[in-house]
Write a structure and sequence with these properties.
The complex is a heterotetramer, with 2 copies of chain A (323 residues) and 2 copies of chain B (323 residues). With 323 residues, chain A is an alpha/beta fold. Chain A contains 12 helices and 8 strands. Chain B has 12 helices and 14 strands. Classes of the chains: A alpha/beta (323), B alpha/beta (323). Bound molecules: thiamine diphosphate (TPP) (2 copies) and magnesium ion (2 copies).
């Protein structure tokens, strides 16, 4: 980052801090899954942190985010507390969703984080509706919706592109194209390389960005948010990235080849950003301090989660309806 | 008291709540200037305009999804699905999103979404336009279900639905739209979960749903001429279901027939029957009978008349159960 | 048609004959509906004949067609007999589907006419599968799939565009853009004027043609069939047309303005083509003979249908399963 | 005789029929090199290649639609839906197309499509990944439904399904994949509609479905120690359902408990119970009981154990019904 960087040192450090926070969180989640403390499944977003961090840093607290089961990063990037998110992964009553949602269903409305979803693409029209509500109520808010390359083949994705473009809602579609839907590589799921092309067919501004460059993502997101906030949305942002070595802690994904499983490490956005910061003059000690802070914060989150109670069977019938 | 058709009663309920609730928004197709496929929205577009009575593209799944998005943003939304058969194209949004979000997100969001959908079981429109699929939705926890049989109940239940915070599936048989009943001009609402006894009797209870209620009343009238006193009970809502009310009638008469247009197998009749067996077995003077739609894809044309129950085969069932 | 017409006089006359056949058929269908002989509904394709005729004339008998409830024209254009189609509209046992399908469900596998569907867009993936079967079995056949502008907003449409493009199946998407989905005009259902743009986003050849010019449609279809047959498909063909004065014989569609309801007549492809033929030297008597033939043929079809028996209730349980 | 796990038995059935039927094609996601989400397809990709074991984009609705297209073209197709919860996104294709086309097109097409879908009710994967939705499909005429509980039945039923001409929904609880049974090396098949008595008894009949069968057998074993002889019957298929076989057992024991993982309300238990009331009322020594999944959205995490039935609450039910 040269002196001409459009971002201030504080801004850069914020991006770094959030990326490290997410990385450490995910490493811990994998460990807890291995120990049997997370029942079901968990989908780390390791290697994709630059996307949620870059986008969410362009949003205000009241702006809204919806994301997928691979959504821990989006939750943290949007400002949710690692402790209540970790407690949710462990399905504890102190979790953000009282332990009912688990890893795939995180939510913190106070942070504008309106939920992650385990049905691929199902949250995309929900995000459309949230954005429409902002428009109808004339609130100057922007909604960002994260989803994968796999989701971009589901009908609801297209239906929402069409409705969003038609009604000009302040929505940013953020496609995290990590090259795989579980085991299916994108060349087996789409005829053309860029998912962004499809959005253009609806007359929408559509941008492709290197999803492993947090500054590039952030600048693209800033521009998109600016457009959307002024009624010139929706905007489509395709962020190219590389998936972590497995689909989830529970299933492997495609990589039989151990070489391929390590591919993400060669483009890992975190060391890349660290390099960039160091070479543009950030002190190594400053970064080490951030690393240390994040380790401590997440360790505390884990301790909080592990010590929290699990919901009991008596609670099962509570809250199916409001009234 | 004045009489209104069920169509007009529903229209009035919507109109009044549109006036009371400035953020209540209607989504769907053909609901604008056209007034709804079966005319229930007549005049609403003129009064409330295209923002609030919002015609959109033909994509039921995302339409319901947008409705959920509005609802979780604190607005209230009514979505129309033009035929109940088309719930199939929005099934995930209805049963995995609308019905469950409040619960699994730990109560952080509410989903005041009302989905209106007409049953067209008695018009000969064929296999994909004739289905009564209420049992599917009763199977899934989290959705309230109203299924009124007359103008008075329709308006009162619609009012309750439009004032509550839970997702509601509102099912209307089009054959009932033209039927009239007394409807007060004063505001009223009808709680969910209370069956209504439409005719009192001592020999057999007929629980009838939706479009079969007029048939049940006609059969009861004929039966009376043969000296059989039939009690006709309309549950009005399926979730919650008034088990106690139905059981009370059954304890009085000792015999129960359940009638609906839906397919027989795994229909609502089986559920009501089983609940009665669980709570009132000792009162059963005869096996509980069901008179239902046949387990066949409904052919196009006039043959639908042989698929759904009518007063004649209901009368036969009444005569056979009392003997 | 000048001497340089790429079509022979026989070819032109064939196009004319099919268009007249369909027109007369539809006029009769409307009359029969008015008389109560068609139960349920019927969706005439009056004013859109040039599309099905132009496309189907480019196909061989073994090539396949799938279409929508507005599919009488496609059925006739593909070579189905007016008598069995008319009998099907009247749900008679002599109908192409034994009277079970009715107006919205026509099929004649011997003519490669694989069925019309009453769920908007649901037949589009079916057509994809049919085309895939041709490819897998190395049969040099082409499948054409007709659908409307409304259908082009449904998720399944996009899902099929994607799969068809990915697997390069010999499929021709024929979009009959008549400007309306029941009452919803295209400007309320899509942000951009050309549906063809969306197909381009999948990397597909995509053509817009005047759907009321049968020769233009036919030439575009010929080119598309040629491409698809040689493994260079799928191809997208958007045919711009104007809808007849109502959505169906049962529901009105939007046109409150009687002027607008007559709009289709001003661009009616039939008189336009007749003009063209006359001015390029076809004898009026020859056309009159065709008109006369069609009147007689359809009159005979009506007589056949009206005299045919209706299925009886005993048949209801037949043929739910093959075995 | 050799033993095989249910996973391997299913794999073998598919493999053998892939060898016998050159046009049998598998569609889905993650079914190729990956071998299927739960490993049922292991090795098939290597043996039969990417044309016949065809991984595709993530779009369940069009995937089923393509499968139907192949089937009506005279090929045979197997589609995998990765979790039963995802039937919701392909609902129209399953119930309005696959189930009905043969019937309403007057028998002109057959739909030899097999849809495999696993139930994941016992893994804690939460509200959108834990549902047993078989009653929905039993409600709709036109679909055969197999729901085996062991390797032997799974292979035999799969063989029947893969040789017939009707659409089949094949439901597999993932908890059973690892369980083993004796499976002959010789070819065999099991007809649909024949229940299997897995344990003989005289005091009470337990009809158990899918993943609850091992629980039922364990409860029966415990009951035997308390002197209660439980007959355990597995219907194996739901359409057709072996009413006569279940009734025969009930006539013998005079008591019936039905157990399934699915939600209680409008589940299959209610249907079986009602059929038994209709045919064997006079043999009932006690009301028919059901032990089922609770009517709550299934929370993520370990609490699922309190949602689905287990041997303990089944044993309680057994003890209470005999007293
Ligand atoms: C409708 C639906 N189909 C299938 C699945 C199973 N599934 C979960 S994640 C996933 C892959 C999604 O890929 P992508 O959208 O690229 O996201 P990524 O996992 O790569 O982040 C699949 C197939 C699901 N949850 N929902
Ligand atoms: C999934 C579904 N939604 C709604 C309908 C009701 N409906 C029947 S035709 C139609 C309009 C379709 O418009 P378009 O695709 O443009 O075809 P057109 O009628 O103009 O030929 C609608 C909404 C349906 N049959 N199926
Ligand atoms: Mg991906
Ligand atoms: Mg149209």
């Amino acid at each position: 980052m040269s002196a001409k960087s459009p971002l201030s040192p504080e801004e850069l450090l914020h991006l770094y801090r959030k990326m490290v926070q997410i990385r450490v969180f995910e490493e811990q989640a994998i460990e807890l899954f291995g120990k049997g403390l997370i029942t079901g499944t968990t989908h780390p977003c390791i290697g994709q942190e630059a996307i949620s961090v870059g986008v969410c840093a362009a949003l205000g607290r009241e702006d809204q985010v919806l994301a997928t089961y691979r959504g821990h990063g989006a939750a943290l990037a949007k400002g949710c507390s690692p402790a209540t998110i970790m407690a949710e992964l462990l399905t504890r009553t102190t979790g953000c969703c009282k332990g009912r949602g688990g890893s795939m269903h995180l939510c913190d409305t106070a942070q504008g984080f309106l939920g992650t979803n385990a049905i691929v693409a199902a949250h995309i029209p929900l995000a459309g509706g949230v954005a429409l509500s902002n428009k109808l109520r004339k609130k100057p808010l922007v909604t960002a919706c994260f989803f994968g390359d796999g989701a971009s083949c589901e009908g609801e994705f297209f239906e929402t592109l069409n409705m969003a473009a038609l009604w000009k809602v302040p929505l940013i579609f953020v496609c995290e194209n990590n090259g795989y839907a579980i085991s299916v590589p994108t060349n087996l799921s789409q005829a053309t390389p860029d998912i962004a092309d499809r959005a253009r067919g609806f007359g929408m501004t559509s941008v492709v960005v290197d999803g492993n460059d947090v500054v590039a993502v952030h600048l693209a997101a800033r521009a998109a948010v600016e457009e959307a906030r002024h009624g010139r949305g929706p905007i489509f942002l395709e962020c190219k990235t590389v998936r972590w070595e497995r689909h989830s802690a529970f299933s492997a994904g495609r990589y039989e080849d151990p070489e391929e499983a390590q591919k993400w490490k060669r483009v890992d956005p975190l060391p890349r950003f660290r390099e960039m910061l160091l070479s543009s003059g950030t002190a190594a000690a400053q970064l080490a301090k951030v690393d240390q802070d994040c380790q401590e914060e997440i360790a505390a989150a884990v301790a909080f989660a592990v010590q929290s109670p699990s919901p009991d069977a008596a609670s099962l019938y509570e809250g199916i309806f409001v009234e | 008291m004045r009489t209104l058709s069920m169509r007009d009663a529903l229209n009035e309920a919507l109109r009044e709540e549109m006036r009371n609730q400035p953020e209540l928004t209607l989504l769907g197709q053909d609901i604008g200037a056209y007034g709804g496929t079966f005319g229930v929205y007549k005049g609403l577009f003129d009064e409330f305009g295209p923002e609030r009575v919002r015609d959109g593209p033909l994509c039921e799944s995302a339409t319901v999804g947008f409705g959920i998005g509005l609802a979780i943003s604190g607005m209230r939304c009514v979505v129309e699905l033009e035929f109940m058969d088309f719930t199939t194209v929005a099934m995930d949004q209805i049963v995995n999103q609308a019905a469950k979000l409040h619960y699994f997100l730990g109560g952080q969001v509410t989903v005041p979404l009302l989905i209106r959908t007409p049953i067209v079981s008695r018009m000969g429109m064929g296999p994909q336009h004739s289905q009564s699929l209420e049992s599917w939705f009763m199977h899934v926890p989290g959705l309230k279900i109203a299924i009124p049989s007359n103008a008075y109940d329709a308006k009162g239940l619609m009012k309750t639905a439009l004032r509550g915070l839970d997702p509601v599936l509102f099912i209307e048989n089009v054959k009932l739209y033209g039927t009239s009943a007394e409807v007060p001009t004063e505001d009223y609402s009808i709680p969910f979960g209370k069956a209504r006894t439409l005719r009192e009797g001592t020999d057999v209870t007929v629980v009838a749903l939706s479009g079969t209620v007029p048939e049940a009343l006609a059969a009861a009238e004929s039966a009376a001429q043969a000296g059989i006193q039939v009690e006709v009970v309309d549950p009005r809502t399926l979730n919650p279901l008034d088990d106690a009310g139905i059981a009370a009638s059954l304890r009085k008469t000792g015999r129960l027939i359940i009638v609906h247009d839906a397919y027989r197998t795994c229909g609502v009749a089986a559920e009501i029957s089983q609940r009665m067996m669980e709570t009132a077995f000792d009162y059963l003077n005869a096996p509980i009978m069901r008179v239902t739609g046949l387990d066949v894809p409904v052919p196009s044309g006039a043959l639908y008349q042989n698929v759904v129950p009518n007063r004649e085969n209901l009368l036969q069932a009444i005569q056979s159960i009392v003997n």
